[in-house]
Amino acid sequence: MRCGLASSGRTATAIPLLLFVSPTSIGQLSSFKIRSTKQRSASYRNSGAPKTLMDLARFKALTFDCYGTLIDWERGIVECVRPWLAEAPSTITPALLLTAYAFMKWRHEQPRPVVLFTELMRRCWADLEDAFELPSRPGRAGLFAASIGDWPPFADTVAALEYFAHHYTLAIVSNIDDVSIAKSKEHLRAPFAVTITADAVNSYKPGLAHFTEVFRQLRALGIDRDEVLHVAQSKYHDIAPARALGVASVWVNRRYGQRGTGATIPADVEPDLVVKSLSELVDVHRGRGRLVTPV
Q1: Which terminus in the chain has less CB density within 10 A, N or C?
Q2: Is pLDDT of 295 > 50?
Q3: Which residue has the higher pLDDT, 4 or 287?
Q4: What's this model's pTM, rounded to 2 decimal places?
Q5: CATH 3.30.70.330 corresponds to the domain 73-150
Q6: What is the 3-state secondary structure (H, E, C) of the chain?
Q7: Catalytic annotation present for 268
């Protein structure tokens, strides 16, 4: 059973972000030097970011984050819950919903042992109901969790993966459960040699367990860690740990031209290469791309 797709047609209002974040959470998040989008962009432009394109020929494997990079989870989330938001006492914009979701998801990723991602999604919806004073309806948390399999790929994803499969070994490292990733991979239609989930390593990124395991499995295929390029949209969950491990990374700035960081937690970290889309990364590989500085 799928979420509804009807539009509420309502106008946005704003709710302060700090309503969703506890003082403890703020302290923990500060280790990533969270700053405004404008400040982060200025820092990137003035920080000696790479001025020449990376030599993609030196890599043998591409590891991808899935949701936000390959799968358009923001669109999937918004389309799922849009009809329900019409029941809120104050109007809720998609941007506000995604920002709230990002922090609630982050909070539920902290406990150990980790909860199944579908259970995390159910808990996030319960939090969203409380935060926005939505009426609690039986079954909606389950529908929210089940919507993962319906989230669509970005328009360029399938073609880009088909192209890269001719040049690299492909892998996924995702904060998802085994059942949900299997449904999403049906949309992606790509030959992933390795798939690492939170289920498999009992951890959520930005923890390093995903990366340790994918390196181990790729090594068994004859690919060393310095021959791996990590490709992801989330600086917090992916670029930061890749940077900490000395692994080359590409930030796919899927939100280029939009304010805020959407469904992901912000982090002040620099990738080795920035592109706006996977099709742009294909162009870089073909030798006709250029570096993009985020704004």
Answers
A1: N
A2: no
A3: 287
A4: 0.82
A5: no
A6: CCCCCCCCCCCCCCCCHHHHCCHHHHHHHHHHCCCCHHHHHHHHHCCCCCCCCCCHHHCCEEEECCECCCECHHHHHHHHHHHHHCCCCCCCCHHHHHHHHHHHHHHHCCCCCCCCHHHHHHHHHHHHHHHHCCCCCCCHHHHHHHHHHHCCECCCHHHHHHHHCCCCEEEEEECCCHHHHHHHHHHHCCCEEEEEEHHHHCCCCCCCHHHHHHHHHHHHCCCCHHHEEEEECCHHHHHHHHHHHCCEEEEECCCCCCCCCCCCCCCCCCCCEEECCHHHHHHHHHCCCCCCCCC
A7: no
